[in-house]
């Protein structure tokens, strides 16, 4: 019984780490309120950037043990400790001017609201150049060209 429990405990602890091992590149989002991007895959490496935007989308381009090499929307690249990232898809509004958030995936659909560049939201389904976007409970469809974090990484 004791060896069974020991094995079960080891399997339980290993499962979250194994779930993070995915084929790169892939999209993720920042899970923590504050997350450090380091210049190398260890806490021994200096911090290059400090992110204070929970939910911000990032592209994971390399996996090394418990660390992920990521690229952000501005092209900054560095290493995050894997538990700081979530597999939940997110996107950020990019481009100039307000982005129309529509009721349906169509430019002639009713306008629900406008979002400024930099607004972060949960990303839903994408179809025919439009993506479902949920920013703090305000939902609608946005032209995919106005998003960073959608499509194939």
UniProtKB/TrEMBL annotation:
This is SH3-like domain-containing protein. It comes from the Bacteria. Keywords: Signal. Residues 1-19 form the signal peptide. It comes from Croceibacterium salegens. Pfam families: SH3_4. InterPro entries: DUF1058.
């Amino acid at each position: 019984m004791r060896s069974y429990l020991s094995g079960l405990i080891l399997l339980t602890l290993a499962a979250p780490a194994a779930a993070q091992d995915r084929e790169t590149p892939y999209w993720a989002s920042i899970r923590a309120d504050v997350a450090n991007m380091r210049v190398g895959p260890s806490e021994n490496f200096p911090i290059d950037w400090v992110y204070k935007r929970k939910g911000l989308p990032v592209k994971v381009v390399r996996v090394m043990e418990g660390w992920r090499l990521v690229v952000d929307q501005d092209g900054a690249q560095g290493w995050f400790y894997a538990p700081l990232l979530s597999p939940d898809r997110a996107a950020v509004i990019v481009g100039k001017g307000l982005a129309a958030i529509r009721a349906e995936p169509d430019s002639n659909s009713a306008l629900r609201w406008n979002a400024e560049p930099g607004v972060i939201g949960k990303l839903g389904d994408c179809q025919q150049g439009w993506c479902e976007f949920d920013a703090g409970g305000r939902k609608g469809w946005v032209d995919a060209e106005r998003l960073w974090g959608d499509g194939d990484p």
